[in-house]
Amino acid sequence: MTKKTKLNIPQGMRDWLPGEASRKRELINQLLAHISLWGYEEINTPMLEYYQVLQPDGNWEGAAQIYKFIDRNGEILALRPEMTLPIARVISSKLPQNYPWRLMYGGEVFRYEEIQTGKQREFSQVGVELIGAVGAEADSEILALAVESLRASGLDNFTISLGHTGILKGLLESLAWEETQLKQVRTLILEKDFVGLNKYLMSAGIKADKVKQLVGILTCQLTTEDLEKEWRNLPRGIAIALADLREIIRLLKVYDYESYIQVDFSTLRSQEYYTGMVFEIYTPGIGYPIGGGGRYDQLLQNWGNNCPATGFALGVDRILLSLSSEGKGKKEKEKEKEKCHLLAGNDATTVITKATQWRKKGKKVITEFSGITRAEAEKLALKKGAVLHWCVKESAAKEGGKKDET
User: Fold this and answer.
1) Nearest 5°: phi and psi at 317?
2) d(Cα 22, Cα 200) in Å, to the nearest integer?
3) DSSP string, 132-192
4) Which residue has the higher pLDDT, 198 or 49?
5) Pairwise CA distance, residues 389 & 383, whole Å
6) pLDDT for 287-313, tens place per residue?
7) Is the pLDDT of residue 16 over 90?
8) What are the angstrom distances between the C-alpha of 121 and each of 7, 18, 19, 90?
9) DSSP structure class, residue 369
């Protein structure tokens, strides 16, 4: 092993240094604490799963992003690339059918992705799964909870791009195409390559006016009010999807969160198991969604459990990046400094006693009492961003008239 290998870590991974790690942990705890107010219970699964669990129908589009390897028994294992699939396994095998289940999680996931700003191969997610609930009531709860969670984290400037899988299905239902052709259309829409989509549809023999209609519906920018307008001559699948979105948004208005919604019919998720409304969350300055989710009513059938479901996942790392770009990071650092105290002195009993008392009051305390000088303690406090409290022995304090110097 070379010296370089000893010091470096695999691409797409990162070390979380002191300060960074605590802010990340605090954010995860903060998000979970807020989500729990909605009656969600925490669940966790192993980071390692059997590869087949993550490929329940053998046809997941993100299979190429899975880290997989063979164990000593010859079994193919994989690092979880998301939390929904493992939780679906748990629900179908270990939980009673006391629906609805409201579950939340916070943990690490792994995907072999192209490394860019905001995209890592190991990252943390906080999310929820609402199992056994159907309709706009459940979907609006998921969207409202996503909004509230982000607001609770301190993030103010974000937009939810809301779509529906029924839009694309409705557009393509009249096309007698092979599965590979439909997948190519889906890929072009996921990549937002509408120029390429236009060319592909034309090359497939679709008439120009039909291509214009298909691409036009997918690229139009809509507000929530636009959905209330009269839409004519639409395929039945699209009409049903629009009605679903209208009801979801009607309920979001009750929550008073519709202002965060941007209707976008081209919104899709890379996972093919979504069956209804889908959404992605964006903040300025980051070219990738910081979260997303939707309805997946057929996924649990892969484990013999015919049960509707909906949910979302938030990228913790990307939320931190968004908070930093909004200027929230500096405030958090200053707050952290105010909490930190350095108790130092030449008498262990005095320092330990005072530190114990302060920690019981919730103060963050560092102690140093092994031969440290006052000058050394001052330098250490400066390095740690802590407030120094120089402690002297009780008897010496009585003689000198004071026992704790700051």
Assistant:
1) -60, -40
2) 49
3) S--HHHHHHHHHHHHHHHHHHTT----EEEEEEHHHHHHHHTT----HHHHHHHHHHHHTT
4) 49
5) 15
6) 889 999 999 999 999 888 989 999 999
7) yes
8) 19, 21, 22, 25
9) -
